[in-house]
């Protein structure tokens, strides 16, 4: 069943901002100073809520997203910072030559919150991100690993059973699609869920891509209960036990979220 934040943009923005202030920014601050001299880019910024706490710290921020409508909403939410030239919000592809030319080597921090699992060719994409880093810059990734109970984002389903049934997204694509149809999901929802199936990413795959990009993991935190589940399901965030995180196969199925900062 679709949650209120899937329908109400103000609720979604407020939740993004609060989660960023309480979890994302403090996590990044453990490995990088965040102040008025810090330049930040968020890839997949949506309505801009994740950037708000960074702007409140005085950072200069660029938010970029492929969805023009969501970027326009971000401009409304962050209008004061846009008018002060502290926030720049763009509907653009970061592979575009003019974007690369303008922003190459520009950022201390790059943020991807619940984004990398939607990106095709992650092995190509992650190295591309490094082009935008200043010396000593870092990239933050926060995402739900594929094998966790709702790694297919099936919580967006319209049907009560389809939205609450765990793990069935890891079925082969054809069987997964057939089950979604049998559960009465709309064609639009099925296409969206198929796209997530196609770009799925596991913890192991992510760490491999990071290594292949000649990046080093600076900090990581695995969560048994994703901090965002406070809003989605009324559950309090809980960190994953360290020994679980050291068992690759087990961690994949019971870790609902991972945070990483990586850098050269």
Task: Report what the structure shows.
The protein is α/β, with parallel strands linked by helices and 264 residues long. It has 2 domains: 4-147 and 200-263, Vaccinia Virus protein VP39 (Rossmann fold); 154-198, no CATH class. It is built from 13 helices and 8 strands. The chain has helices at 9-29, 52-56, 68-77, 79-83, 97-103, 122-129, 160-164, 173-182, 187-198, 203-212, 229-232, 242-245, 248-254, and strands at residues 39-43, 60-65, 87-91, 107-113, 133-143, 216-225, 238-239, 257-263. Strands 3-2-1-4-5-8-6-7 form an 8-stranded mixed sheet, with helices on both faces. Helix 6 crosses helix 10 and helix 8 runs antiparallel to helix 9. The longest helix has 21 residues, at 9-29. It is globular, with a radius of gyration of 18 Å. The N and C termini lie far apart (42 Å). The model has no long low-confidence stretch (mean pLDDT 94).
Give the helix proportion (percent range): 40-55%
The CATH topology of the largest domain comes to Rossmann fold
Summed over residues and divided by their number, the pLDDT gives a mean of 94
Helices and strands, in N-to-C order?
Answer: HEHEHHEHEHEHHHHEHEHHE
Q: Tally the helices: what do you get?
A: 13
Say how many strands there are: 8
Category by helix and strand content? alpha/beta
Rough outline:
globular
Could you give the topology of this structure?
Elements: H1 9-29, E1 39-43, H2 52-56, E2 60-65, H3 68-77, H4 79-83, E3 87-91, H5 97-103, E4 107-113, H6 122-129, E5 133-143, H7 160-164, H8 173-182, H9 187-198, H10 203-212, E6 216-225, H11 229-232, E7 238-239, H12 242-245, H13 248-254, E8 257-263
Parallel strand pairs: 1-2, 1-4, 2-3, 4-5
Antiparallel strand pairs: 5-8, 6-7, 6-8
Helix pairs in contact: 6-10, 8-9
């Amino acid at each position: 069943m679709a949650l209120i934040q899937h329908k109400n943009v103000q609720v979604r923005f407020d939740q993004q901002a609060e989660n960023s202030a309480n979890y994302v920014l403090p996590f990044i601050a453990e490995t990088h100073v965040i102040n008025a001299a810090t330049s930040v880019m968020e890839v997949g910024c949506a309505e801009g809520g994740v950037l708000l706490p960074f702007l409140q710290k005085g950072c200069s921020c660029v938010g970029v997203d492929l969805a023009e409508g969501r970027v326009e909403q971000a401009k409304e939410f962050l209008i004061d910072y846009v008018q002060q030239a502290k926030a720049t919000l763009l509907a653009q592809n970061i592979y575009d030559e003019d974007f690369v030319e303008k922003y190459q080597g520009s950022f201390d921090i790059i943020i991807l919150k619940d984004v990398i699992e939607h990106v095709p060719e992650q092995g190509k994409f992650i190295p591309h991100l490094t082009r935008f880093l200043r010396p000593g810059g870092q990239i933050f990734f926060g995402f739900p690993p594929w094998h966790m109970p709702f790694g297919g984002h099936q919580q967006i389903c319209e049907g009560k059973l389809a939205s609450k049934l765990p793990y069935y997204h890891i079925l082969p694509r054809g069987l997964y699609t057939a089950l979604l149809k049998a559960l009465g999901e709309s064609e639009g929802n099925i296409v969206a869920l198929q796209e997530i199936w196609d770009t799925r990413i596991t913890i192991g795959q992510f760490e491999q891509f990071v290594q292949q990009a000649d990046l080093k993991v600076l900090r990581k935190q695995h969560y048994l209960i994703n901090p965002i589940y406070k809003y989605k399901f009324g559950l309090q965030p809980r960190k994953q036990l360290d020994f679980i995180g050291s068992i690759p196969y087990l961690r994949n199925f019971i870790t609902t979220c991972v945070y990483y900062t990586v850098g050269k």
